[in-house]
Every structure is written in structure tokens, then in C-alpha cells.
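Action item from last week, closing it out:
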Amino acid sequence: MPIIRKNRSYRKARYVFYKETLVDFKEHFWAFIGSFIGLGIISYLQYQALPETDLVFLIGSFGASCVLVYGVIQSPLAQPRNLIGGHVISAFIGVTIQQLLPDILWLSAPLAVSLSIVFMQITKTLHPPGGATALIAVTGSPEIKNLGYWYVLNPVLSGVLILLAAALVFNNMTKNRQYPSPNVVRSFKRVGKRLKRK
């Protein structure tokens, strides 16, 4: 019996603590460039094109999305469906909760994030930064709260589409990087064939 426990402990420790580090400098380079350009465009729009307005274009959850979309491009959580769906669903839920419970932050914050998780799971669009998008809708600045449901379209959807466009360009610059993942591409092809038959 002790041998089995030791073996399980070893496997758990290896799963938690050991992960082979990415050492391909081309991967690092393209992850940096993609993230810099994608988030750079959003930042430029926020601070140069829209400085006179109350519009908000740059939100914190985009930084977390960059880590997934440019750094872990094969992850199921980084695929386009998850990127777009996770953010949009979470933004909608966050705004709805903020409008229903505007003054009860101790309830609205966890409720928005928890409902976002459940709806992302149901729709198979789980994207961890989506939880932050919902939380920002509830706890954000007055400018964000004043946007209401426009928050879903701008900054969330428009920002996510910019990140996706940059990912489609820079994540496919070398033969070792393919975005979306080959499994997602095959799924799109299967759906396309089914639609042609109908």
C-alpha cells in the first residue's frame, strides 16, 4: 500500500510542479509580437483615437486573453469560439447582474462570475478571462457601468475581434504555429460539408 501512495504522490507533484518549459525562441518571438500588436491596437484606440470621449476600449481581461491566445495557442480555452463566446457571454451576464443588483457588490460580484462560468460551460465557450470580463462589468469604473449593454459590443466584442485578427495573422507565421488548432479547423470543415449536403 505505501508504494501506491508514494506513486500517486509523485504523479500529483509532477502534475502540479513539473511542466516542460517552452524553449523555442521563435515561439517566444511570435507570442510577443502577436500580443504586442493585438493589445497595442486596442491601447492605441483607447489613448490616442478616443481620448476626448468617455468610451472605454481597454479592459484588464484582455491581458489574460493575450496569454492564452498568443502564448498557449493549442489550448482549447484559447480557440476563437472560446475567446469570442466566453467574453461576450460573460459581459452580457455581468451587465445584467450589475443592472439588477447595482448596490449589492458583495452579492453581484460573485454572482456575475459564477453565472458566467456556468453559462460558458453550458455553451462550451469556457475562457477564463471571461470571468474577469463579468467582474469588470460589476465592479468597473462609472464609465464602464454607464455603458450598459454597449459594454458587450464595445469594448468587449470589438476588442476581442482585434485580438482574434492579430492571432490569426501572427499565430500562423511559422509552420510550428497553427491557430486555430487543427482540431478546430477539422471541425469547421465537417460542419461545412454537412451544410453543403443540406
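Closing note: The mean pLDDT is 87.
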